[in-house]
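Justification of computing resources. Each target in the renewal requires a structure prediction run like the one illustrated here; the chain below, 427 residues long, is used simply to show the kind of job we budget for.
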Amino acid sequence: MLTGSTVRRVAILGGSRIPFARGMGAYADVGNQEMLTRAFRGLVERFSLAGETLGDVAAGAVMKHSSQWNLTRESLIGAGLALETPGVDLQRACGTSLEAAILIGNKIALGQIDSGIAGGVDTVSDAPIVYPREYQQLLLASARGRSFGARVKPWFGLRPRFFKPVVPSVTEPRTGLSMGQACELMAKKWGIARSSQDELALASHLKAASAYQAGFYKDLVVDYHGLTMDNNIRASATLEQLAKLSPAFDRSPAGTLTAGNSTPLTDGAAAVLLGNESWAQARGLQPLAYLTHAKVYAVDFVGREGLLMAPAYAVPMLLKDAGLTLSDFDYYEIHEAFAAQVLCTLKAWESAEFGRDKLGLAGAFGSIDRTKLNVVGSSLAYGHPFAATGARILATLAKLLATRGGKRGLISICTAGGMGVTAILER
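Resulting structure tokens:
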């Protein structure tokens, strides 16, 4: 039986993450499991969960070693949860930890479990580097040999090129384009100016720095490897500095995406504690917000649509399910993979042509109050450890609703593969 007699409300009870760090830097000597364990342990310590058995834990990483096939389970054990707590690995690119929260939330709503943790982690500093497939096939052929001669024979095919490492690619297999190259095409299609991208990036850094100064992250970020805050935030950045940066993907004068208005390669981990109301009440925990709706969608990014435009479709579908309009939110948390991606999405929603031709509406989908967008900064400032970003945003939005007032917040995350993951939190 999948459900009980009632659907339970899914409470967001708190979050924990390590400071996000630029790749090849502060976390160069640690990997996914160490970082995810620390993020989990932050929840265990804050909510007195040592030795506790939770209903389930879901997390994942976009890039991980084959030896980390049980990453979530090993990390939750290392964090101090009871050995009876199960864990599952999943992956939906940049939407991984939000997808993990949706999975745990659905189980809580259906009555399968009372509590759980969702999280994600990624590192570019400990990326899985492998050797060419030809070398792999040679090794396997040797291992299959039933005699000494059969095991030795494949080695006569060994070539120097077999020892050239294969580094994980960040390009889309279907198009051969990196995410930045694909977003540059989107910026050109939608006419997104370089100056607008730089302005959004600067605002993200300044808002993030202000949030730290105000103590907003005091109970959300735990110290790790000498860091107490994300080391990508540039509180002293200026538009003049950003304007001097060279284009990073289209290096011609027509290029608009730079290192300053794009997220850097980042290491980090984040986690969120969820539960039903009775479980929370029994432990004296106050829900920050409730996860009420979610929607995923994918676009044909090979021939019809921009790689990172799926949220432009997913959000209208989400709001239709919820019976809401785009103006019915106090906060909008739109993942800043690139400043251009955010601006393309907003422009699409404001376009009557896009509304009619793509969404089947009578006109434009709508516009948002920009003062409610990413009010404490987002990925351009904090960085973007792929699988960890969703949990960072989820915990951030829940705390905003609980501490700064408001009834409702919207989450929108674009991902590789032309997908989007979206959700609504409510008080």
